[in-house]
Write a structure and sequence with these properties.
By secondary structure, the protein is of the alpha/beta class. The chain has helices spanning about 25-35, 60-75, 105-115, 135-140, 175-180, 225-230, 245-255, 270-275, 290-295, and strands at about 10, 15-20, 40-45, 80-90, 120-125, 150-155, 190, 195, 215, 260, 280-285. The protein has a nine-stranded mixed beta sheet, with helices on both faces. About 30% of the residues are buried. Bound molecules: S-adenosylmethionine.
């Protein structure tokens, strides 16, 4: 990747660069001068609009919405014409009562509208291993159930960004394999108006088309990143996402050697995944400790 002229703390790998700085500065002083129209996928999980401060701090309410929309607008010139932006925003609760905050949803909607983007599809990342919470309402008073998903919005400048679901096919189920063998299918009209022919499911297309609910658990307690952070006494990122999430979008929305950008890199799951998939990548993380930890993904 092109090296920034400014002496920000950074590391390079064969495919990418990670910079320790606020993304607002990096976008203005490094990305805009060098990467106009060249980024194929912006994949980011910005700090969530929580009602209490997390380690990396966060804005709340209108301030949060305005800040994120401003960052979004500053990113638009970088995105190639058929490129995609995927933003994950976690759920939040209103302070002091068992009610769900609409801020994450409002933020996604405003982000899309203020940036003039199309919503290609909404995705849910479901984590079945998520611990029950918020503790007060779920574990103590037992008046709510555990909150175990986050939303991802796939957006783009055009209604038809580059995408191929053939690159994210899933293993067929056992039943499907049986169906291929028997060649028998209960054909005919369905209440949904689909008219299923008797050969509709007889062809093996190499895998099943996935749904927009991605199931992934963040339970890998033994990986190199965690081991090395513990060994070196570096804080483990509290909001890491499982590799399966960026992997899905990188595979479906980019081809080899194209550029993937994450402006809120955290432990740099996105960069590590892009590296593995032979994509070029640029990651930006403001927090020094998280930035240092993220290097261990590449050792
Ligand atoms: C939800 S976390 C991202 C987690 C990441 N996807 C992972 O798997 O590790 C959001 C990150 O954004 C960082 N951040 C917050 N404000 C930032 C800014 N202005 N520029 C760059 N990074 C920022 C935080 O320090 C935090 O690590």
């Amino acid at each position: 990747m092109i090296q920034p002229k400014i002496k920000w703390r950074r590391y390079n790998t064969p495919q990418g660069i990670c910079i320790n700085e606020k993304c607002e500065n990096v976008i203005k002083k490094y990305l805009i001068p060098n990467y106009i129209n060249q980024v194929q996928l912006i994949f980011s999980s910005p700090p969530f609009p929580l009602n209490r401060a997390k380690k990396y701090g966060n804005l709340v309410g209108e301030e949060y919405k305005n800040w994120l929309c401003d960052v979004g607008r500053s990113l638009l010139p970088l995105l190639s014409i058929n490129g995609s932006i995927v933003i994950e925003i976690g759920n939040a609760w209103n302070p002091g009562e068992p009610t769900f905050s609409t801020l994450p949803m409002e933020t996604l909607l405003e982000f899309k509208n203020r940036c003039g983007l199309h919503l290609c599809q909404e995705f849910i990342y479901y984590n079945p291993a998520r611990l029950p919470g918020p503790i007060q309402w779920v574990n103590k008073e037992r008046v709510r159930v555990k909150d175990s998903f986050t939303r991802l919005w796939w957006m783009s400048k055009t209604p038809n960004p580059y995408a191929s679901n053939k690159d994210v096919l899933e293993e067929y189920s056992k039943q499907m394999h049986k169906l291929f063998e028997s060649g028998k299918y209960n054909s005919g009209k369905r209440p949904s108006e689909h008219n299923i022919s008797n050969t509709a499911f007889s062809k093996n297309n190499g895998g099943a088309i996935p749904s927009n609910v991605i199931i992934a658990a963040n339970t890998d307690s033994n990986n190199q990143y965690l081991k090395k952070c513990k060994e070196k006494g570096i804080d483990i990122h509290p909001a890491r996402m499982p590799m399966a999430i960026p992997e899905f979008f990188i595979k479906m929305l980019t081809r080899e050697a194209e550029i993937v950008l994450d402006c809120f890199a955290g432990s740099n799951t996105t960069g590590a995944c892009a590296e593995r998939l032979n994509r070029n990548w640029i990651s930006i993380e403001a927090d020094k400790e998280f930035y240092i930890g993220s290097k261990y993904r590449f050792d």
